[in-house]
Design goal:
Rhamnosid_concanavalin; 44 strands
């Protein structure tokens, strides 16, 4: 190893003599974040990509260096950890050096050799540790003297002196509830709704901020405004979050760690020297809305010279949990600003603004009027015929006790001091329209109101475009619904529930992973699962929960997410950590199903939710998911070398498959159950169909679809399976006919009726279950990548180290392209027609390979660069390729 390392270093030193690689190392991340602050991971993960356009480009060796001095690191010195030269193509490496120290910035870089043994060196980047150990907290948990029923949100402030020149400063903020932090009158950061929602009495998150530039030598002021969030929900709905066992007045703890230029470190903490007062936020509910009385503003409350003699002392509180950990997750931000597209005046005091599309987020109103004027901003997804905002499709689960907390309706009381504006801090809503009603006439214009699209700010990594405009709009609507339901955990809808429904999440999982880099959100959310799981393995149907959902809505069809999410993260990222972290939870969950299902069939679950008409027995659909879970458990056990577990789950999977087919499959006709779309597609998709029967079952599914006039007749579970079952078994043309339908019932029917997000019900005239921004029918977004673009991860080489390509050149579509930025780089699969000739282009990223399964096009021969191709598959190395069928 020493010889190899010295040789590698010699090559680097001689780069002036010998040509270095034209490859560049890009996309450096630590824990899937760029230059993260405040990490608690004791062994963080490093990832990178090669940027190299040469055919066959790949990495043959790497070395990772970690140091605390960037200058020394640039000179190849001072490494805290040197991985040594490893002859491998992996671009995911876990730190394996000495124990990391808290509050420390570490610098790191990667050195690689390319396929010609030429070296390349990455830029130097960094990560910074946080507390690492809860014993490193110095601050106290503080709150004001009010109880959980007090409606006004509290302010907190403290003035301190920085006596020397400041080199760096970090604020570490943990809270039960939500908060906004300010330093010297300036808000810190651009996150919203921090910290993210967890099971507060089992795990509390803290966030780290770099506040160096906001502090000054001399006097400084810290300000905190606390909101309720899910910790102190004062609104009442069917899930009883107002009865949560953790519920209390919001509280927080903060350490501000200042490093001076002379090396001295000082920590400013929360304690009895802070002061508190009630704020103008007179009510805030993450579920309903926010109320603000500008007459109660205290200008300069978070600055040094503010007179706080009327403010009260703070009170110590018990920490909400014993597990305070870093929030290493893509933050929630106001990602997009949407000007109002139109305004309609209904009368002297009522205007309705239209943003032009459905979003999750908030609105900002700019207005001028007399003090005490009450302005109500009602947010909704649709309008009554008379033009007023209609909430009847989204407020059915709300159970208000009085009229003081109207649903999705902000209340702004003007201060009367000229132009003023209001934007909620501790709430978000699902809406397209805002009805603004004032207690006296106010002059409003289209520019008076702006919408802000809020969601976890996950980078886009996928793109789809085609010759079918409705299909493209559908992909965009799917992504809009996915993002509208990503707030540090995946939700079902952003208005009437905001719950982390486990079934909705795994149904839309691949849709999210193909289009967005969401691993940090899923890793955070699966930690919530581990917090919520009962000792016997049972999980609730919503995560996090206050205790609701253990008795209804859970079961294999919903809570299989505990198995499906870690497995798919492994497939998409090639990272087994989440799978390993959840292995015991997965095992306990699956073993519980086995314990209550002695016949290997299970009736535990909800079934095919919101079907068009046909709904199979719950036993049918739940057993399909039970089988899928067990099959994955067997694969995970093999991966981790747990041979006894693997053998047991393999045998169990075979027993479930046999019992299921014995009861539901007619071997003579090739029909499952009554032959409905869901009954025929789910066994195909989840691989319960015996190999010898697949062709007949698939043909029967296609016939049933034709009988249904190529329209959907499925619910939530069936729509996950049907397109994939068809395209994976020789009927991609039939799948496309379903996907491209524009009449009821279909996805396209929504688009043709003006949808910019996905709906909760196929029937847009439904009286119930008709949210206009639900992600549960979102599998269509993933299928476009899979069923038309043909981009699949290879379980034998996860993380798209080998890409499985199965494009389908379906009739009646002239052009289609899909791209996905995988861990190794961008995969692109695109095809088009010129007359009868089909042109297909594919890009395989550096450091990856691909297996292209050649589509069979009747009457046409496949060619590559003018040479006829034989066989049914072609193996490709990194590069771009063009094929023709003619």
């Amino acid at each position: 190893m020493l010889k190899t390392t010295l040789a590698f270093c010699l090559l680097l030193l001689l780069q002036t003599t010998y040509a270095s690689s034209p490859a560049a190392i890009v996309g450096l991340q630590c824990e899937y974040l760029e230059r993260p602050l405040g990490l608690d991971a004791p062994t963080p993960r490093f990832t990178w990509r090669l940027q190299d356009a040469r055919p066959g480009a790949r990495q043959t060796a790497y070395r990772v260096l970690v140091a605390t001095d960037s200058v020394a690191l640039a000179q190849g010195r001072g490494a805290v950890w040197n991985s040594g030269v490893v002859k491998a193509g992996t671009t995911l490496v876990t730190y394996a050096g000495p124990a990391l120290q808290p509050f420390t910035r570490y610098y790191w870089r990667v050195e690689v050799k390319d396929h010609r043994k030429q070296p390349a060196v990455s830029p130097i980047t960094s990560f910074e540790t946080g507390m690492l150990d809860q014993r490193n907290w110095q601050g106290a948990w503080i709150a004001d003297a009010h109880d959980q029923h007090t409606r006004s949100a509290p302010y907190f402030r403290k003035v301190f002196e920085a006596k020397n020149s400041i080199k760096s400063a970090r604020a570490y903020v943990a809270a039960a509830g939500l908060y906004e932090l300010s330093v010297n009158g300036q808000r810190v950061g651009n996150h919203v709704l921090d910290p993210m929602y967890t099971r507060f009495d089992r795990r509390t998150l803290y966030v780290t901020y770099d506040i160096t530039k906001l502090l000054q030598t001399g006097q400084n002021a810290l300000g905190v405004l606390l909101g309720n969030g899910w910790y102190n929900l004062q609104s009442t709905a069917v899930w009883d979050f107002h009865k949560a066992p953790w519920r209390a007045r919001p509280t927080f703890c903060m350490d501000v760690r200042i490093t001076y230029t002379d090396g001295h470190v000082e920590t400013i903490t929360t304690g009895k020297d802070w002061k508190t007062a009630l704020s103008p936020v007179i009510f805030n509910s993450i579920y309903t809305a926010e109320h603000y009385d500008a007459r109660r503003e205290q200008p300069g409350w978070n600055t040094v010279n503010f007179n706080d003699k009327e403010w009260k002392e703070v009170f110590f509180r018990t920490a909400p949990s014993r597990n305070i950990v870093a929030q290493a997750v893509r933050p929630i931000r106001a990602v997009e600003e949407l000007p109002a597209q139109s305004i309609r005046r209904l009368n002297d005091t009522t205007y309705v603004f239209d943003l032009g599309r459905n979003i999750a987020g908030v609105s900002r109103l700019a207005v001028q009027g007399p003090a005490g004027t009450v302005v109500r901003l009602k947010h909704g997804e649709r309008l009554y015929p008379n033009g007023h905002v209609d909430l009847s499709n989204i407020d059915e689960h709300y159970r208000p006790t009085d009229k003081s907390d109207p649903f999705q309706t902000d209340i702004f009381i003007l201060g009367g001091k000229g132009k003023e504006s209001f934007q909620p801090r501790f709430n978000y809503k699902g809406f397209q329209y805002v009805e603004v009603t004032s207690s006296r006439p106010l002059p409003l214009t289209k520019e008076s109101l702006t919408g802000y699209f809020l969601h976890s700010d996950v980078p886009a990594v996928g793109h789809v475009a085609s010759a079918n405009l409705t299909l493209d709009k559908l992909w965009q609507a799917t992504n809009a619904s996915y993002l509208s339901n990503l707030f540090g955990y995946p939700t079902d809808c952003p208005q009437r529930e905001k719950n982390g429904w486990t079934g909705d999440s795994h149904i839309a999982l691949e849709t999210g992973l193909y289009s967005f880099d969401g691993i940090t959100v899923y890793e955070k959310w699966l930690a919530d699962y581990r917090d919520e799981q009962q000792p016997n393995g049972v999980l609730p149907s919503i995560v996090p929960t206050n205790g609701w959902g253990y008795e209804w809505g859970n079961g294999p069809d919903w809570t299989s997410s505990v198995v499906l999410i870690p497995w798919n993260i492994y497939l998409f990222y090639g990272d087994p950590k989440l799978l390993a972290d959840c292995y015991d939870n997965m095992r306990r969950y699956v073993d519980h199903i086995t314990e209550i299902s002695p016949t290997h069939l299970t009736t535990w679950g909800l079934g095919d939710w919101v079907p068009v008409t046909d709904k199979p027995p719950v036993e049918f659909t739940s057993t399909c998911y039970y089988y899928a879970d067990v099959a994955i458990m067997a694969k995970a056990a093999r991966l981790f070398g747990k041979t006894a577990d693997a053998a047991r789950y393999e045998a169990l999977a075979a027993a479930i498959q046999q019992a299921f087919n014995a009861k539901y499959l007619n071997p003579q006709t090739g029909l499952y159950g009554k032959g409905t779309q869901t009954e025929m597609s789910m066994p195909l998709y989840w691989h319960l169909v015996p190999e010898a029967a697949k062709a007949q079952v698939a043909a029967n599914l296609a016939k049933q679809v034709a009988t249904d006039n190529y329209h959907l007749n499925v619910g939530l579970l069936g729509q996950k399976a049907i397109l994939n079952a068809l395209s994976e078994n020789g009927y991609a043309d039939v799948a496309y006919r379903i996907a491209s339908q524009e009449t009821y019932p279909s996805w396209g029917w929504w688009i043709k009726n003006g949808a910019t997000t996905l709906y909760e019900n196929w029937n847009i005239q439904a009286k119930h279950d008709i949210s206009l921004n639900h992600i549960m029918f979102g599998e269509i977004g993933a299928w476009l990548y899979k069923g038309l673009g043909g981009i699949h991860p290879d379980p034998a080489h996860p993380g798209f180290r080998n890409v499985l390509l199965t494009p389908h050149f379906v009739p009646n579509l002239a052009h289609f392209e899909a791209s996905h930025e995988a861990p190794q780089g961008t995969i692109r699969s695109a095809w088009s027609r010129t007359g009868r000739t089909v042109h297909y282009t594919v890009t395989v990223p550096p450091n990856a390979t691909a297996t292209l399964h050649l589509p069979v096009v009747e009457g046409l021969q496949a060619y590559r660069e003018g040479r006829a191709l034989k066989g049914d598959a072609v193996q490709l190395v990194a590069g771009s390729y063009t094929f023709e069928w003619k």
